[in-house]
Amino acid sequence: MTTQQIKQHDRYKHGQFALVLSLVFTIFFLYQAFIHLTTVYTLLALAFLIESIIQSVLLHRLVKEGITPVAHSKLTRALTLLQVFSLFSGNVFTASFGFRLRQEKETISYTFMTYIFIADVFLVALTALNIFKPYVTNSFLVILISLVVLTVTDGLLIHYLKPDLMETKQLTARMRLLIIFLVITALTGNVIRLLLSYQLYIHYIQTDVSKREQSSQFWQKITRSFTAMLGLLFIVIIFSLSWMSTFTFVESFAVENNYQTLLLEPSLTHPFGTDNFGRDVYSRVVRGGVISLSIGVLTTLIPMLIGGVLGAISGYFHPLVDQTVMRILDALYAIPGILLAIAIIAAFGSNTTNLVIALSIGAIPMFARTMRANVLMIKNLEYIEASRAIGESEWKILFKHIVPNALAPMIVRATLAIGTAVIATSSLSFLGLGVEPHVPEWGNVLRVGSTYLETEPYLAIFPGLSIILLVLSFNFLGDGVRDALDPKMH
Amino acid sequence: MTTRLIKGFHVSQASVGLRLIHWLLGIVIHIPALLYFQFKKRKQPATATLLDQQMIQQLSTDYDQRIDYFNRDPNENEKQAFISKEYALLKKTEQQYRLNYPQFFEQLLQSRRFLLLTLVPGFFLYLFYLIYHHGLIRFIFERLVATVFVIFSVIVIVFTLLYFSPQDPAQNILGDQATAAQRENFEALFGLDQPYLVQLTDRLHGFITFDLGTTYQGNEDVLLNIENRFPVTLTLAFLSLVLAIAIAVPIGIISAVKVQSFWDYSFMFLALIGLSIPSFWQGLIFILTFAIELDWLPSTYIPGQFASLIMPVIVLGTGLSATIARMTRSEILEVMHEDYIVTAKAKGLSNRRIFTKHALPNAWIPILTVIGLQFGAMLGGASVTEKVFNIQGLGSYIVDKQFIPDIPAILAGVVYIAVMISVVNLLVDLLYALLNPRLRAELND
């Protein structure tokens, strides 16, 4: 491979991306250490600095030695292994690069497994922060220990999965056990486990070769795109942490007033500080993750379904139907989503159900237009004419032959729309129009913080950063899905 | 002039809907014209009898020739049957080719005298023809009609939502202690006791005559409120748009030209972050940094002070710039993969020339559309930004009034923003039609 080819390779780009982000965080931590003079930040800054240096050395050697580990010298391999361990300082970027560099050929199963492991480590670490609290839940210790055991198992599985899982064609008892194990442990909220077990299922049980190919091609592209995988990783971490918080986080810290701990600075006990009612903001953010996420997902799925059906019908049937439906939707489209939501909430009161309905209605026209455009294009294709010629019913043609083939742009839209929905939800909560004030939804948490902007800015900064992280993750994932599904890109 | 009218007339005959409008608009002309046409038609058959004789003669020789060709014996009965059958068929086709009313009307349109005579009753009909004779004018006209329709639909939708609200403005304003008589008085004062259709027509009528009523609370004139608050929102939106275009388009171009370079990745990463920041949080952080800590800019908006608009404009423009930058990049990249770019390269044009002469002119049209569409989303976001920076604009007006809910105020606010968005979309579409040669050619056909 020439230098030029190496530099254009996905792995090299991943390495560069990791280096840049690692450097950015180094500077950030250095700045924090300089201002607050705390040991935690100094240690973090030092760790990130070392990792960045290793990373740049590694990138340099990569250009010389090529990108596959077979060609690497002992030193390069040692450095790669070192980068894997950078995970324990919290540097996902260099760690994921290290994991990636250790494999010969990039396989879906290995990539998924490494990201499962990374998510495990984060889940354990973020849950373990509760140790510093005055007391913990009854189930905390049991769950923490089992999570650690699970993490170690996953670490071992990475090693076991390094030769490609999908080389063997036969479904062995071992493999069946692995699938069952993955599905059960997916109860921790780690969606990547479900994805991996689905991959294995597709590989061993699906007999239709074209479907198998299609699925593996899509996931291959997703797993190769490190930004998409990072997005997926952060979504999974936020979701599983929040999902498990029922057992691991004391609820009263998040929702009950405690006048002994009013407006405390961030510390190990209260990583994000406490608000004006003495509630622990970290617990609130963790608890609220599921709420923000599920509202975001719901307000995307509902309009996707309704808009999809409306768009399909208006695209397929008589122009009169088309004109009627689309003109009504045009009127909805002329009102910005947030304003329509404000109007609906003004009329029917502010609570979570109304918020979901309000945001959903505003998004219907966008999905309907996307679907309609696709249906219009597909309905003129030859295979539709063929199915009409053999006398299939109109509805069957529409929902069995056209809609499944028109879904790709809808999925891309939806993934990108979840981020927007999360922002809209928190914006409305911020205006006092969304979720009930006591619910720890992220916009609500931020609203409390915004009133103490001058004296306790961290109250607004941390929840805000969480929102950005979640939305950014969805946008990264959405971009990845678009690149994987869009035929124009290739 | 007459040729244009006739062309418009032809266009109007093409679809059912247009034909209906053409009948309705010209009903005053059509009724006498139809009568005259029927009268003329009845006079025609007298001249046709001679032709009929010739036709029968022709058919009979036809039959003879056939019999001759097939070497069969002539049969008188068969001959008569053949002649009558063919004759009926010919008559039928002739009927179709005969002068029908549209053709007759077209002939009428050709005469200048007829036009002058019917100019007053047929004014709208002729205007209709003139509009429809030219594709571009027709497009503009239809777009205008659609805009008006959308605005009316917005009024209906929002009013319906607020009408069926379980919230009770009377109770929210008068309080729990209010007597039934006080409430009835309040409802009678604002017409809330009227049935749905009456209230709706009142509102629609109000919007046409610019009488938006008064707010429930404080009895303020809604139109005056809107007039006071509209300019700030408009300035804010316009400045944000300008800022977004000024920043995002060059960034998108640079990213597309230097695709997969360090700059491309950095810019697109920044754009993605810009897309992911909730504007209210960005506003708060800006206030924290530039107003509280650095003390460079005022933290809230002060009318007449330009410096206090800087932060809101940047905050509102961020999301828009991110979208425009991403769109610009992908559009240019898409155009760069077209065949004509390959041809241009093959001709040996320099990269700069390919870019300025071939890529940009083709890429900027979709970019313009995206800008138009995003403008609406930005105006929605303006309500949040206005609340953060305490700007007394249209968006914050709606938010302030929704707690009661103050139906006239919310309705007027939402409708005015929808009007603004519709007008911008209309302008974008018109620009699109005027500047896109392909669409222009299509419209002219």
From TrEMBL, chain A:
Protein's name in the database: Peptide ABC transporter permease
Keywords: Cell membrane, Membrane, Transmembrane, Transmembrane helix, Transport
Family: Belongs to the binding-protein-dependent transport system permease family.
Topology in membrane: Multi-pass membrane protein
Residues that span the membrane, as ranges: 17-34, 79-100, 112-132, 139-158, 178-201, 222-243, 290-317, 329-349, 410-433, 458-478
One Pfam family, short name: BPD_transp_1
Compartment(s) where it occurs, according to its Swiss-Prot or TrEMBL record: Cell membrane
UniProt KW Transmembrane helix keyword: yes
Superkingdom to which the source organism belongs: Bacteria
Iron found in the keyword field: no
GO biological process terms on file: transmembrane transport
Gene Ontology terms: cellular component: plasma membrane
Occurrences of domain ABC transmembrane type-1 (ranges): 289-478
UniProtKB/TrEMBL annotation, chain B:
Biological process annotations from GO: transmembrane transport
Transmembrane intervals: 20-39, 114-132, 144-164, 234-257, 269-292, 304-325, 363-384, 409-435
Keywords from the named record: Cell membrane, Membrane, Transmembrane, Transmembrane helix, Transport
Family: Belongs to the binding-protein-dependent transport system permease family.
SUPFAM superfamilies: MetI-like
GO cellular-component term (any): plasma membrane
Membrane topology summary: Multi-pass membrane protein
Main subcellular localisation: membrane
Lineage: Bacteria, Bacillati, Bacillota, Bacilli, Bacillales
Record's protein name: Peptide/nickel transport system permease protein
Subcellular location: Cell membrane
ABC transmembrane type-1 domain: residues covered: 230-432
Superkingdom: Bacteria
